[in-house]
Amino acid sequence: MLSRTGSRFFRQFDRFGRSIAGERRQFDTQDNDRRPMDSIDRTLLQLLEADSRTPVKTLAAHVGLARSSVQARVRKLEETGVIRAYTIRISDPEPAEIEAYLWIRTGSATCAAIAPVVSKFEEVLQCRSISGDRDMVLLVRARTLDGLAELRNRIAALDGIANVETHPVLKDWI
């Protein structure tokens, strides 16, 4: 049954998508249980994607519909699987810090000459002389892998250092 409101025509449909006048409603999808998405549904999805906790009252005001209409639309989007879940995105709560050991082989400098220089880096937690192929070992802490790489490069560029090996800590056992 058609009615005229202003210059626009509206056709009424029952809950199964059939026109009250007896015509079958055409769907955009192959699933006849799913009604076609319109611009309001897409706007609701964009708003919920930006903040899944947006109150229905705010959604309704944004799209210009009653709260009950918005609730029905969101429920239908959930039931048909368009909205599968409401999730959170963690921005960066407290970035985990990365610890690593830097094994240093000195060149022309002694450990006694290098130790005071590397102790000025705030990321250096410990500096020890060791025996064997390496001369020193540093325990360092950085906020990111990029920060660790940048620290390693700064230490490798110091005068008297021949080689630096980086060994990130994967897990603490004790």
Automatic annotation (TrEMBL):
Pfam families registered for this protein in UniProt: AsnC_trans_reg, HTH_AsnC-type
Protein name per the record: HTH asnC-type domain-containing protein
InterPro entries: AsnC-type_HTH_dom, Dimeric_a/b-barrel, Tscrpt_reg_AsnC-like, Tscrpt_reg_AsnC/Lrp_C, WH-like_DNA-bd_sf, WH_DNA-bd_sf
Xref: PANTHER family: LEUCINE-RESPONSIVE REGULATORY PROTEIN, TRANSCRIPTIONAL REGULATOR AZLB
Keywords, comma-separated and alphabetical: DNA-binding, Transcription, Transcription regulation
Keyword Ribosomal protein: no
Entry keyword annotation includes Transcription: yes
Domain HTH asnC-type: 37-98
